[in-house]
Amino acid sequence: MPHQVDAGPEDDWTGVTDPKVRKLLQDRVNQRASRQRKKARDASCPQEEKDEIHVLSPSTKPRLSSHIYLDDQSRTGPFSSRDILDCSDLQPWSKKIDSFTACEPDSERTEQFILQFSNWALQNYLKGSPRTDILLSLVQFNVTRALVMNAKLLGLTSETMARGARSHIASTGINHVTFSNALPSSLLPTSLQRTVPHHPWIDLLPVPELRDNILRQGENSYDEVQLCRDLRGCQSVLNGPGGVIVWGEPWDPLGWEVTEVFAGKWPWLLEGCQSLFESTNYWRATKGEPLTHQRFYGTQIEGHPRIDELK
Question: pTM, whole model, 2 decimals?
Answer without folding.
Answer: 0.65
